[in-house]
Amino acid sequence: MIPNQEKNTQPSVLVIGYGNTLRSDDGVGQQVATLVEEWKLPYIRSYAVHQLTPELAAELATVQRAIFIDAYPESTTVQVYPLTDEVPETTNCLGHTSNPRSLLTLAKQVYGVAPAAWWVLIPAVNFDFGEQFSPTTQAAIAVALEKIKQLVSEF
């Protein structure tokens, strides 16, 4: 059974930004999720988390769309990928213990349903200890927010 799922035809989106806010650019996912929360749209739930954990699978099972946001050192531009097998693997280089695909698989296995999902990857160059974003990452925040607006407006 899906946890706390109501019979609702309203669109619902879960935004999950993740990363370490004490490792400079790695915290950009959390920052963007916080900014999305400030939109105060009734159909969007936005979480800023340090890491993706299995408990999030229950939340994923209750929404129609999910957007994951993370720092990405392999590009100089914001990338948006539908979560398919063709998405680049980033978790090993960033030290995360889980990834969006594994959470979606867990939601499907445990609750029988998983939402359509996208991965928004924000360029990052500095993973040293600190709480300031590099100029590259700071500039990409506005671009990422626009791409997220596009994803939720198409819904």
Automatic annotation (TrEMBL):
GO MF annotation list: peptidase activity
Keyword annotations: Hydrolase, Protease
GO BP of this protein: proteolysis
Name of this protein: Hydrogenase maturation protease
Alphabetical list of CDD domains matching this protein: H2MP_NAD-link-bidir (cd06066)
